[in-house]
Amino acid sequence: MCHLLDTGAVFQELWDVVLSDKTRAAIADVLGLSVVDARTLVSFWAGLHDIGKITPPFQAQVPACYSPVRNDPIYVSAPGAEAEKSFRHEIASHWALSELFEAAGYPGDRRLLRKSVGHQVAQLLGGHHGLFGAVMKAKEVAQAGRYNSGLGTKGWAGQRRAHFEELRRAMGAFAVPLRGLPAGLAVVVAGLVVVADWLASQTSAIEPRIPDYGWSGTAEEVDAHWQAAVKAAPGLVQAARLGRARFSAKEFGAMFPFAPNSLQRDLAEHLPRLVDEHGAGLVLVTAPTGDGKTEAALFASSLLGRAAGARGLYFALPTMGTADAMLPRVEAFASRSLSGERALMLLHSMAWLSSAGSGGKAAFFEAPVSEGLMSAGRRTVVEADGWLRGPKRGLLAPLGVGTIDQALSAVLPLRYNALRLFGLSDKVFVVDEAHAYGPWMHQLLVRLLEWLGAMGAPVVLLSATLTGRSAGSLVDAYRRGTGFSEPSRVVPRYPGWLFASGVSGEVSAARSTASNRARTLKVSRRPVVWDTAEPAGTQVREGGRRAVLREVLAPVVAEGGTALVCCTTVAEAQQTYRDVRAAFPGLAARPGGLRLLHSRFPADMRASITARCERMYGKPRPSEGAVAARPASVLVATQVVEQSLDFDFDLVVSDLAPLAQLLQRAGRGRRHERGPLGRPQWAAAEDEPELVVLDPLAAPDGSVPRSWGTVYDAGLLRRTSLILAECAGDGIPVPGGVQKLVDEVYEDGFVDRLEGAAREELARLDEERAAAEAAERHLAAWTGICAPADVKGDLSKLSLREVGVTEELLTTRLGADTGRVLCLYEQADGAVTLDPEGKDPVPAGGRHGLKAGELAGVARRVAPVPGRWLRGGEPAGSVPEKWGKHPSLRNLVLLSMSPVGDGTWRCRHGRYTVSMSAVGLEAE
After folding, report:
1. In the chain, what is the greatest distance between 2 CA atoms, to the nearest angstrom?
2. Secondary structure of residue 604 in the 3-state scheme
3. CA–CA distance, 97 with 821 (Å, rounded to integer)
4. Could you give the 3-state DSSP secondary structure of residue 879?
5. Fewest CB within a 10 Å sphere: which of 367, 443, 795, 889?
6. Three-state SS for 725?
7. Collapsing DSSP states into helix, strand and coil, what is residue 19?
8. CA-to-CA distance for 299 and 344, rounded, in angstroms?
9. Cα(418)–Cα(131) distance, integer angstroms
10. What tens digit of pLDDT does each residue of 410-461 get?
């Protein structure tokens, strides 16, 4: 009884502190009650969440206390009822409350229980452990004990009824709802119930208030406990930092310490009027890399958040690296522009290792946690405190920066997906690089936007290369959620932005904006024979990729300047690095002359390399004074440089890739103004950056290299190659010509330009791509939850998984055959260490697993590898039992590496020989 009262009291406080006035009013309106009565009623529901603990299976868990009850004739149970362990208490709550609400006069429909208000509420409360039970049948409600012996006999039902009535009396919750909650509001209430239960269940909250021995639950005792619970609830909520951020700053100048550029100024001048007239909604910003989309998004977020009464924002990015880089920018924005509760969370699988305010060092806490391991530094006032770092709680913080998968998990049938939806429901949701996701993730994003629209959450989408078709699908998904089903026929402008109201349904005409850096991208398409597999330093063949790359890089080596060489695969990047090192030994000998960056380094090595690259290739600092041309330096990399890394090169060289990716890479060319002396003479024209594309399809009898596998769609590569041939003469106007080209590469009629065998081949490739994309979209529809409009009173649709859908499938990006390894280095003296230098011994662990510092030391050295490397490996490669069961150790494979000379370490694992050296991990 006490826990029911405590949870109801905490829910009341959360209602007051966390929910917006608009949400409270919407819930009250649907229920047909005043806001005051709705607050009392819904808090009463929250208190009832654990009434299913009044059942034989739950009570029998403490035999000494249960023994007197077992022998009481009133509480006789059916044989085996106590052993019904699968009949968990939350399921019992669902079953028991359906009948209790019906008896209390809640509107119902025995023929169609999903329309019964009492059953809807019972199902909602039965989901407080993250999964919603199926809709019951009328006969199951009428004779619940007969169908589930775990409910016990009449004595048990009488006790549940007594608790129901006493809780109702103590809280004064005698009002009866007229209607059930729509899907969006049901998710909000369900999420708040979970949070209230968690807060009230903390041992620090329970122990000081356990009733004295002899407490018997008289009305006076219940009332006294209720009053004490109400008094204690504000402190629990305040300590959890679950309040609301306020978007206080109104002007661009108050948010950022610089004047707005053309895009930002146009938003500042025109978006306020649209929001004033039509309410909050969705803003889509399309502009080149380096044109200030991040600041534009934060300004729009402030405007939309203030109009919607949002309690914060979540900034979603494609990768952990881009999320880490965005965190300090959002932190700075929050400190200048927001007031109220500004708890800020970094959310991705390795976020607990470092956070804002930690100076790049790991932040450790007593209980590293699962599902988007979350932590924050201790010194900044906008970082979240201890309670928010618990499992599954990160999206509850008012402010968040993290990977897109943290948000997309909300529309997969995973446990606590409703809690994730609740966490996003009253925030501005910002998606960076909205073009960067394949069909499966795009379809999940479409579904998430429908839910956010239904819940009235504002959205800002950012993209450098988004097709008109994709833009329309995202805007229309949001509008469907808000109740406007007609297509918007969006035509984005580049650079530019548009606004779609979630209140009136109005979609503004996309506005074109000027660019502060209009340029002409000079494209050099170089036909090459693919010879990357040739040993480094051997004789090059005329017209081969190795020879052309030497020719292209020669001015960099001779005259200075910086160049990016972007490769398709990690293996080709490693081999290219070796070949460039052999071709230009003087360059490689100079500190920083030649660098390699890809994903197959241990995490700490990759972070160190990235930091050095940011210093070398990043934006000039005003404190540095006059900018001089940089000494010769070449970075060989993979696609990791495409997104959100603020690198600036004098020359960009790339293997052929789909046009959108090439444009992203080209955005790293002469990205920042360095002045007349800031670049070498061969790259002096800052408004004419150069992109060299090494194109194997342009060579005689050229084809997609076998080594690329399915990294890119062959049809898109063929289309891109043909478009580049047309652009090579005059170049590509940036940004003016970008949107046309991005749309052109996907045009259905593109194939009609070709004739004969070329036309037939492209048509075949297009058919294969269409089939593959359709399969991914089907998989997203098959695995994802339904649209909010299709819930129709049955929340179990949020938890329902089709046969064959596993947790692993749902939490892994489609087609990502990946594994994780930890190299253990066997030293000459027999010691085994985490580092090749032999300074950091492998931790032994203990009864409680690894300590926080030991766990961080292990996690920093983990590296991702293709899953095929690890299949068929030895059991000895598994994690020691004494290391514990922390989620960051899950499916981790240990590789025992032996030295083979020249700084290379090697081991045999399954069918592969895996080596670790200065170029990262390799396998053969």
Report:
1. 97
2. helix
3. 48
4. coil
5. 367
6. helix
7. coil
8. 18
9. 9
10. 999 988 999 999 999 999 999 998 877 888 888 999 999 999 999 999 999 9
